[in-house]
Design goal:
Elements: E1 2-7, H1 11-22, E2 27-33, H2 36-46, E3 50-54, H3 62-72, E4 77-82, H4 87-96, E5 100-103, H5 108-119, E6 124-125, H6 131-140, H7 148-152, H8 156-166, H9 171-178, H10 182-196, H11 201-210
Parallel strand pairs: 1-2, 1-3, 3-4, 4-5, 5-6
Helix pairs in contact: 2-3, 3-4, 6-11, 8-10, 8-11, 9-10
Length: about 220
């Protein structure tokens, strides 16, 4: 069972999202919050697997709250939801350590699947987040990507997995494409994260662009 907390300053949205996620048989909503500070308290109390977080909230905004969650509760992944289709929010969310980003006009089915993907360690960038955005974000990091030696430390299969992650494939899709088991994929992803010093799959995507591995 995946434990989820939801944070939004609009009561109708907050309870609506909580109801949608709570209707999934494999998801349990263990807490809600109306501002970023309350969200930090709820996460600390519940140690949830996924926090679904609005960007614009009082007291502490969603981006700042995300950075705190990532720092203080590394076992909790953050999925950012916002009504604003603005590049800057995506840049800030990724820099803060969010594992996913979706607009609030997402369907109920997509929201539930998004939480499942993030909980599973997959990256989740909505269709509005284009390759140009990832390229621009990589450029903003100013060459902070891994040295070539780090990439050279990857085995051929690990490189294949990194390329598949950069294409946005899920573990199941990678397993199918490479004719290996999902558990093997997870092991490869964990090893690639370790070797490249990255936290999650979103950072692996950025790394693939930064390094030139993906042209």
């Amino acid at each position: 069972m995946t434990r989820v907390v939801v944070a939004d300053d609009q009561p109708v949205v907050l309870h609506g999202f909580a109801a949608i996620l709570g209707s999934a048989p494999d998801l349990e909503v263990v807490g809600t919050a109306a501002d970023g500070a309350a969200l930090l308290e709820v996460v600390a109390q519940t140690e949830a697997d996924v926090a679904v977080v609005d960007v614009r909230m009082p007291v502490l905004d969603g981006i700042a709250a995300t950075a705190r969650i990532v720092s203080d509760h590394p076992g909790t992944r953050v999925l950012i939801l916002t009504t604003f289709d603005l590049d800057e929010y995506v840049f800030d969310a990724l820099q803060a350590g969010a594992s996913g980003f979706l607009l609030k006009d997402v369907t109920a089915e997509r929201l539930i699947e998004g939480v499942r993907m993030v909980a599973d360690g997959s990256m989740l960038l909505g269709p509005q987040v284009t390759r140009r955005l990832v390229d621009d974000f990589a450029a903003r990091r100013g060459g902070s990507g891994p040295r070539r030696a780090a990439l050279d430390s990857l085995t051929a299969r690990e490189t294949d997995v990194l390329l598949a992650v950069a294409r946005g494939l899920s573990n199941a899709e990678i397993a199918s494409a490479l004719f290996i088991g999902e558990q093997t994929v997870k092991s490869h992803v964990s090893e690639v994260l370790r070797k490249l010093g990255r936290r999650d799959r979103v950072q692996l995507v950025i790394t693939a662009y930064e390094s030139g591995l993906v042209p």
